[in-house]
Write a structure and sequence with these properties.
Elements lengths: L8 H7 L26 H8 L14 H14 L3 E5 L2 H12 L5 E5 L4 H14 L2 E5 L4 H7 L4 E7 L11 H10 L4 E4 L4 H4 L9 E5 L13 E5 L12 H4 L10 H4 L4 H14 L5 H11 L2 H20 L4 E5 L9 H7 L7 E6 L2 H11 L4 E2 L9 E3 L11 H6 L6 E5 L5 H12 L2
Parallel strand pairs: 2-3, 2-4, 4-5, 5-6, 10-11
Antiparallel strand pairs: 1-7, 6-7, 8-9, 9-12, 11-12
Length: 427
Amino acid sequence: MSSECKNRFATLAVHAGAAPDPATGARVTPLYLSNGFAFETPEAASDIFGLRKSGYSYGRGGNPTGAVLEKRIATLEGGTNAVTIASGQSALLVILLTLLQSGDEYVSANRLFGGSLGLMRRLEERHQLKVTFANPLELDNFEKAVTERTKAIVIESIVNPSGDVVDLAAISDIAKRHNIPLVVDNTLATPYLIRPIEYGADIVFHSLSKFIGGHGQVIGGIIVDAGKFNWAGDKRYPLLSQPWEDYGGIVLADKFPQTAFGVASRVYGMRDLGPGLSPFNSFLALTGTETLHLRMPRHVSNAQAVARHLAAHPAVAEVSYPGLENHPNHPLVKRYTPEGPGAVFTARLKGGEAAVKRLISNVKVFSHLANIGETRSLIIHPASTTHRNMPPEERLAAGLGPDVVRLSIGLEDALDLTADLDQALKD
């Protein structure tokens, strides 16, 4: 890993974590379709299950194909270790359940992927994990949301769906002042555009279903441990700092000081809760990483072209893409994402919800579906789909009124995309 880290992003995206298969010489990482793995001896089996020795035991806790993906994404993000998991949603769930117990509190950005917001509300209602929402673009209010009972901060690096870039270093400073971990969903940025650990993030996660997988084939997630938060002796986080009696009294923060959160996520999140990622989805996501450095610049340049075009269109009232120079979030783009703020943004139409529905019904190149970050361009109406469970007043405050459409810009020719939108916007 240390020698790999000397290489640049493109080389790491292709090679990190991988080597020719020792049994066959296969250069592509093999797809290990096995739910169990033979042990050399009874003692080796006991040591692996007891966390005294690394190795594979049962596919729910890890797989050699997934291990290469974990090493690669951890390397690209600058983390110490990673855990592949069944979806981005389950990655967030495992992070929260590893950090929090019933009655605990945390602060979350109020501008997030709709599924994340829905999950957080459900966990509060059913499991008493209290969340306080705050606008991550208003740092004073965000700071005030943190109390002595807060045990984590959760944000997105680039906000889904508005595309706003968050001031990661400033929010990291808030987390450090209160000695709590900062959790960053880096799905829209990918490590190609932003590496949140460099700005103070303690835990990073992704939906692999988006830009990393990149082709609309995969449902998957990954958790990356920065290895920097000091969990040792901190009774607020018992899974990290207290003995696990069923594992011989092991204390993860003492045994694994630089990888403790990743180990806890694997042992509790994977072995106990069970949302493992299939080897086949790991294989597809791993393949996707090999072209990430080629796809992201095209995504960004296309998004910039489409956003500029829509901003000048007579049927469009507003475009929320901070890559545009007149956008209020543009200064943070220059600081954090000089290569561009991703490829997901919203547009507000002058004709209201009726115009949005006509647009979505009339596009021919864009696909009407709920994903983002694919090779193909996608379009959807957040207010009635991805963010429908938000209270109406919160949707409006987040810029997701009924007249707003979300676009995820793919790899097609930008002129074809703008032409498609033009014909679909005609009365």
